[in-house]
Specification:
With about 270 residues, the protein is an all-alpha fold. It folds into two domains: about 180 residues, no CATH class; about 80 residues, no CATH class. Helix 9 crosses helix 10. The longest helix is centred in the middle third of the chain and has 39 residues. The relative contact order is 0.09.
Length: about 270
């Protein structure tokens, strides 16, 4: 790393003042987008609550696949799950929290851009190039994890848990906050899981991970992936388990390619030096 590349050296207080400007701009945009999301209540909760409905797109896809492969049991039966609120201010507070999460999700590209712009003058040219790639790919992979959870993992998990009964005498009535908390928790988990290639790239740069090691323990990794998929989607059919596990296996294979490329670049650099 290097100091500021300009002719004048910024003092600590100059950097602090610049950081304050970055944070103020990010907070202003976050507040504005949160208020916008708050105002569009019906559209916002139409998206958030869609996975609980039997006409959600993933169920239609499963039915088309079931018809194609002649496996009727794959098509889920029509179901109805009722959400309730048990606190006086519960719906208002939930509205505020969901609007904040939506605003944060929408503002995150700008926030990442501002933070990278603040840090980049202290980096060398090659460090700046790699850092930009890491930021961009990290965000893209996180969003892919969130989308996979929204369209596949959460609907299947919610349907199974919402319809599960220990006895016919016990009726399931789901609290709204429980629904939102599980959606946010699984979205965060899948977003983090999809950062595996970035973490592997970092470990490879530090010399802590090799492609041969990952290939050697590929079978072990697949077993772990299947275990994670079984926990995330506690359904009884193998097809759903494989649909959840397949993207994770692809991530592992992509991570091997990333690590291999890092090793080739290191070897090329050593030969040139």
């Amino acid at each position: 790393m290097k100091a500021d590349s300009g002719n004048t050296q910024l003092t600590f207080w100059d950097h602090l003042d610049e950081l304050r400007g970055v944070l103020v701009r990010c907070i202003i945009l976050l507040v504005v987008l949160t208020l916008v999301a708050f105002c569009f209540r019906e559209e916002l909760f139409g998206i958030v609550l869609a996975p609980k409905n039997p006409d959600f797109c993933i169920y239609g896809l499963f039915c088309r696949i079931a018809e194609w492969i002649q496996l009727p049991s794959l098509c889920p039966d029509t179901f109805h799950v009722r959400l309730i609120n048990t606190e006086l201010a519960g719906q208002f507070l939930t509205h505020m929290s969901v609007a904040f999460y939506a605003g944060l999700l929408l503002a995150s590209p700008y926030i990442l851009y501002q933070l990278f712009r603040f840090v980049s003058p202290a980096l060398y040219e090659d460090e700046r190039k790699y850092s930009l790639r890491v930021v961009v790919w990290g965000y893209v992979l996180f969003m892919l994890g969130v989308l996979l959870n929204y369209f596949l993992i959460f609907p299947l998990t919610f349907r199974f848990l919402a319809l599960y009964q220990v006895s016919a005498e016990v009726e399931n009535t789901i609290v709204l906050t429980s629904y939102i908390d599980m959606l946010m928790m699984l979205s965060l988990m899948m977003g983090i899981v999809f950062e595996i290639p970035i973490l592997c790239w970092l470990f490879a740069q530090l010399g802590l991970l090799t492609a041969s090691f990952m290939r050697t323990y590929r079978k072990h990794a697949i077993v772990v992936v299947l275990g994670i998929a079984a926990v995330i989607t506690p359904t009884s059919d193998v097809f759903t388990l494989l649909m959840v596990a397949f993207p994770m296996v692809l991530l592992y294979e992509a991570s091997i390619l990333v690590v291999r490329r890092v090793e080739k670049n290191k070897l090329k650099t050593e030969r040139q030096s």
